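2024-03-11 09:14:02 DEBUG pipeline.ingest accepted 1 chain
2024-03-11 09:14:02 DEBUG pipeline.ingest length=154
2024-03-11 09:14:03 DEBUG pipeline.predict start
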Amino acid sequence: MTPADAVACAHLEAVLFPGDDPWSAAAFRSELHAGHPYVAARAGGELVGYAGIALLPAPAFSREPAEAEVHTIGVDPTVQGHGVGRRLLRALLGHADAIGAVTYLEVRTDNGPALALYRSEGFEVVGTRRRYYASGADAHTMRRSAATHPHDPR
C-alpha cells in the first residue's frame, strides 16, 4: 500500500464501518508514515482491500516475545467471500511471524465472517471489550501465538 491509496482506503473504510468512527485518509497516511506494514489488494487496478499491522520487536535480552497488533483489515463488499481478506491477513501474519510475534486484534463480537476467518488462522478469543466501538458495539480481543517457525514475509 502507498500513500496514494489513502483516499480509496478511507472511502472503503466509510462503507465498511459507517457507525464505528471510520479512519480518514490522513489516518492511513499517518500509519504508513510511522512505518507500519500495510498491504493492498487490487482487482482491475482498483483497490478492493487493505490491511495493516504494528510490530513491536522483543526487548533486547528479554524472554518476552515480540508483539504485533492488527490495526485494520477491510475488503470491498463486492469481493468478500473470495479469499481477499485471508490473503491480506496472511500477508500481515508473515510480518509478525518474521519477528516471532504474538499477534493481537480486536473484532466486533457480531462479525461472524471475520471471527471465523481469525479462528481459522489460529486466533482465539482472550477477552471482550464492552462498547469498544463508537457505535457502542462490543469487541473481542483475539490472540494468535507466535509461529514456531518464523519466516520472511517477502
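2024-03-11 09:14:41 DEBUG pipeline.report Residues 150-154 have pLDDT under 50 and may be disordered.
2024-03-11 09:14:41 DEBUG pipeline.predict end
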